[in-house]
Amino acid sequence: MPTVAPSSRQACLLSGLSLLLLVTSSGCAWFAKQSAKQPASLPDSAIAGFVPQVPGETTVTRMADHAWRQFDMTITERVQSVDRDADQGLHIRVEQEFRYPDLSKQTVTTGMVIYADRLEYITPTGGREIQLKTPLRPGTRWHFDRPDRQVTRKRIVAIEDVCTPRGTFPNALKVETTIATRQGGRERVVRRMTRWFAKGCGEVLTIDRPQGPDATAHERRYYVIDKLSADRREPFTPPPCRP
Length: 243
Hints:
Elements: H1 8-17, E1 58-65, E2 71-84, E3 90-99, E4 105-114, E5 118-122, E6 128-133, E7 141-145, E8 150-164, E9 167-183, E10 186-198, E11 202-210, E12 220-228
Antiparallel strand pairs: 1-2, 1-12, 2-3, 3-4, 4-5, 5-6, 7-8, 8-9, 9-10, 10-11, 11-12
């Protein structure tokens, strides 16, 4: 993948951001009309609503510290193309632009593939990681090995309303991720992440917690601040956070 060689700090931030899912703009008005009642599960067809599917759709995400005060980076994601892959998955190719506090920027190409039973993220190196899996209800679990002798375990833990600086998103899937290293037959957790996925808007909030000394100070939060439809006319108006 063509990319600018990042500094060690940028590479660290990029590794966290590369796990972010992309979000759609076309479904945002959906939230203002939904009931706050939380269902026990979501229909499996909801997987298709977690990524943009129209070339030109754009999402802007911001990274903040654990107290929402320091803003380190913004990420602009734009759909480049959509087509079917050899396995009949819907392949969405996306351009990501990372803007750093020093005004430097980096652009990479990545994407997602939607299947009937799962959502896969295409890593910058061309690998794939399952981000969501059916059934879309609390208790669903999956895991996969990473090439760096790490194992990633994920599980859906709840369907709940989530409040972000941009507003409230009801009935979001809450997914917990644990990344551990394997050595001598034992596992050591090195990172924990919590994500919220809202049908129609995709991933709306991520809390990334590296494990170890002073972990809270290194916690980062990623949340959507703006979205544009392909014709740039779709407003982004989630309801405000409820007290």
